[in-house]
Amino acid sequence: MKKKHFFKKFKVVLPPVKNIYITNESIKGIASIPVIEANFLDLVSKAMGFTYDLIFPADGLFGNRLDNGSWTGVVGLLDRNEADMAFAYLSMNYDRFLILDFSTTYTSQVQTFVTEIPPLIPKTTVFMYPFSLSIWFTLLPLVPIVSLIVYYLMTKKRPFLTVFTTIGGFMSYSCCFLPFPDFPRGEGFSDFFMELSSAVKTGSYKALLPKGSSLLNFLLESEYRHLQELGQIIQDKNWFYDTREKITNYFEAKTALLGPNMRFKGSLYRKMRISEDSFGVWNVGVVLNKKYCCKKRLNEVIFSLISAGLYEKIINDEIFRSGIGTDLEDIDEPEKTHSLNLGDMYGIFILLFAGYLVSSIVLVAEIALHRILKFRRITYFNCSIRRKFI
């Protein structure tokens, strides 16, 4: 039986934006969360048959609880009964459940971070990639020790197993070494929050959180020490970015932007490095005032739309729309792999010729020293003979 539509008008909150017209356009190359949520709201309203007025939090925040118990941002509007529902891409958490209600889940937030792609490490040091600097320094004193051992073994007949192990060791290092010149590597840390936390502690990187989100409290209350330290540094240094501003304003060298992965979608992020690590995954639903009348019907509509894949279609459409007019030629995708060429190996050849040069100098020095000692022995011998005859 066909569900009857009801005619009602609601006050609906969208994610913080500077003005209502920004929902009609997004930054070229970056998908806009307010646009995605506004389109999903429009789809739900047509399916349920209601109209709505859009409102936005004046403080531009998503919602944090203050010391006096009141709430800021989107959550505050709903808590004070100034709005009926919010399509604001808000995550579900315990504190919000105490004062608000949520619809069924329609997506999830995967909390990650994005940084600029670091410059590639010079290929002159490509031969050092397989091991860290500390390991190389550990291996240096072993070279003369191993040389003495090999010298001692050379005076004896070596068993086959020893020869096989030696050859196998050289081959293993060769197999380990060859992929490194072929695979470009960037400077800095890898894609993990533990390394980001270490980089932030040493002062080599900055980490920014969305202003007015619940992410800071999550970091501070995390069971993992590196996340606690990261959150504490962000709080002490007041490192936040305003989601109402163009996110490109915060694209700086050695700066990491933390947030849900949907905030980092679009063709422009091809020249950024999005971490595959995550410090949390939370469900997202429509936030409802406790007095909202039609939660059951809303859940049915959302479930139908999600089952049909329409929310994903809205996201993909927005990614495509935001990319229209973007000059993809200006977006240099990072080089992944390529065939080995002379340019990849010139660092090794420099090292080889440097070794030849040092060997030549040592050879000349040995010859010169040998001749000097020989001359001294002859001179000493001649002097001894003369003394005998005198």
Automatic annotation (TrEMBL):
Domain Ionotropic glutamate receptor L-glutamate and glycine-binding: 15-80
Entry keyword Ion transport: yes
Annotated keywords: Cell membrane, Glycoprotein, Ion channel, Ion transport, Ligand-gated ion channel, Membrane, Receptor, Transmembrane, Transmembrane helix, Transport
Official protein name in the record: Glutamate receptor like protein
Record's bilayer topology term: Multi-pass membrane protein
Organism annotation: Argiope bruennichi
Superkingdom classification of source: Eukaryota
Chief place where the protein resides: membrane
